Amino acid sequence: MLKLSKSTVFNIIRRFKKTNSAETKQRPGCPRTFSELEERWIVRQAHINPKTSAVKLTLKCKSKFRKSVNPEIVRNVFKKHKYYGRVPRRKPYISKANRKARLAFAKMYVKQSTEFWKNVIFVDESKYNIFGLDGKQEGWHTPNTALHIKNLRPTVKYGGANQLVWDCMASSGVGNLDFIDGTMNKYVYLVTFSSEI
């Protein structure tokens, strides 16, 4: 009728006689490893230094809180507070002094008139690999197919060749694309720039 075993019914009756309630008490479960205060300290360490590892923080927790834990527990604390491990985005390093100098330079020219910018030439150069990329590449494949031709990243000795290109731009239009052989030093730069003016 109830689709319950005899032992389950017996336990419910016994519980009701003891506690005057048929509800199951909430089980205590695994006790928490860190207190709220300790968790806030762990999160603060990641905020101060985002590149710190869970392993290093585990060792710090061991010495500070006298608690022997594994790195996975520290990672769970981060997840609880919405901190997730990610690969940092790559950007060219700019020192604090350089950032200040760049900002000062930008502020100096931000209010210049259109006539002023008509007399300015913008130049840039860039390197292009003829074979492959410099950065890390990822791909998807099924188990035991890592050495299939389509899953390989082909390489050449000494990294393959690359080509340096240079160009300029002004209010009057875009200059010609110059292909630079070898290293661009100040002499090559002056010759290239002079040919575009």
CATH class descriptor of the domain at 89-195:
Alpha Beta
Query: How large a portion of the residues is in β-strands, by DSSP E?
Result: 5-15%
The CATH architecture of the domain at 89-195 would be 2-Layer Sandwich
* Cα Rg: 32 Å
The CATH topology assignment of the domain at 89-195 is Nucleotidyltransferase, domain 5
Structural summary, described in words:
With 197 residues, this protein is of the alpha+beta class. The protein has a domain at 89-195: 2-Layer Sandwich (Nucleotidyltransferase, domain 5). It has helices at 6-19, 36-48, 54-65, 71-80, 96-109, 114-117, 186-196; strands spanning 122-129, 162-170, 173-174, 178-180. Strands 1, 2, 3 and 4 form a four-stranded antiparallel sheet that branches. A hairpin with a 2-residue loop joins strand 2 and strand 3 (173-174). The longest helix is centred in the N-terminal third of the chain and has 14 residues, at 6-19. 3% of the residues are buried. Its main location: nucleus. This is Transposable element Tcb1 transposase. One of its GO terms (molecular function) is DNA binding.
